[in-house]
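Q: Study each token:
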Amino acid sequence: MTLPKTGSLSTLDHDRDAAGLTYVYPVISRRAGGVSVGINLNPDNACDWHCAYCQVPRLTRGSAPDIDLALLERELRGFLDDLLRGDFMERHVPEDCRRICDLAISGNGEPTSSRQFDVIVERVARVMRDDALVGSIPLVLISNGSYIRKPHVRQALRAISELGGEVWFKVDSVTESGTTRINGVRLSEPHIRASLTACAGLCPTWIQTCAMSWDGLPPDAFEQTAYLDFLERLVSARVPLLGVRLYGLARPALQTESSHVSRLPDEWMEDFGRRIEDVGLAVRVTP
């Protein structure tokens, strides 16, 4: 397996076509610090959210298409073989990033929108077991939690937990105005809290929050207080969270709303991270 592009991968390019495959793609992950093997269940670029900072081109509203399960498994086996036993790392990865940090079910839309999600997790688990990766490389699901009430999604989350995996649960705002502006959906704080609580009860879960400036201004006091109060309620309720992954913008957004968003200063991110820690949760900050 060879990449059709020349040069090295970088944190600035998360091109889902980088390996010339349909479902599997490599990225250098800033947050994980190595090669993340992505599994894209939304090659149709369809998602039920429309985040202003999303880097997916031609993003449309919708759900995952039918997945060719046999092809996905072949691609994952072949790509992992090249990573583990071939020369992919030497050809395409900077020397200080030549390790597999995780397998990530993510991609160009909400992965749990796939009607085959539980079967897909079974296929991925089989590949991981055959390559003796369980316990050494985590399986990560990056999700907005929209489908957490679906029985087959809950079953898949339990399976991910049994593999030693985890969920990175997207929470960029907890106000209705904030979720409407940033995520293109209108969600209430109780709804977000209920979905997150359900997820954390099924699989080890991080909150994943993208913080950004909007029209040159950081989140206002109302947004910040609402978010921190939300975390305090979770801690008081003893929801078993791993912590918060707070990250900033690294790559250009490709949505019409992208003109509104920009990076926050590193100092703001670090300070807000300390405020999250004061609530009683672990935090990992990636400005």
About this structure: Residues 53 and 221 are 21 Å apart (CA to CA). The two ends are 34 Å apart (CA to CA).
